[in-house]
Amino acid sequence: MCCWKEIGEAPLWVNGSVVETTRKTCGKESPFYYLSHSIRGKNKITYISAAHLNQFKAAAAQGARIRLLHNELSTINMKLIKKGGHDD
């Protein structure tokens, strides 16, 4: 089961997307960033400082990879259950 190993070895990750928007202050536009994520079916946003932006982008990319691995594991488990291949 390579998927479990990959998940266990993943660096820091977050479940969400980094969103860039702009803010106007005194007629000057400047970018700012949020992490958009769902908690119990409700969308939440968390401010990300520019100093942490690259870390959050990398963590969100890892989160997307982990979601794919979980989906892959789920598919494998469904097949095993249907075959009766795993009994505890």
Characterise this structure.
This protein has one domain. It contains 2 helices and 3 strands. It has helices at 2-9, 53-83; strands at 17-25, 28-39, 42-48. The longest helix has 31 residues, at 53-83. The protein is elongated.
Throw out a few tags for this protein.
alpha+beta; 3-stranded antiparallel sheet; 44% helix; elongated; 32% strand; 88 residues; 2 helices
Strands, helices and their partners?
Blueprint: H1 2-9, E1 17-25, E2 28-39, E3 42-48, H2 53-83
Antiparallel strand pairs: 1-2, 2-3
Task: Compose a concise summary of this entry.
By secondary structure, the chain is an alpha+beta fold. It contains 2 helices and 3 strands.
Q: Average the pLDDT over all residues and give the rounded result.
A: 87
Major beta-sheet overview:
3 strands, antiparallel
Q: How many extended strands?
A: 3
Using the CA coordinates, give the radius of gyration: 18 Å
Tell me the count of domains.
1
Distance between the termini: 18 Å
Number of H/I helices:
2
Unreliable stretches covering 5 or more consecutive residues: none
Q: How would you sum up the global shape? A: elongated
Beta-strand portion reads 25-35%
Broad structural category: alpha+beta
String of helices and strands: HEEEH
The largest beta-sheet arranges its strands as 1-2-3
| Helical content band | 40-55%
Which assembly state applies to the chains in this document?
single chain
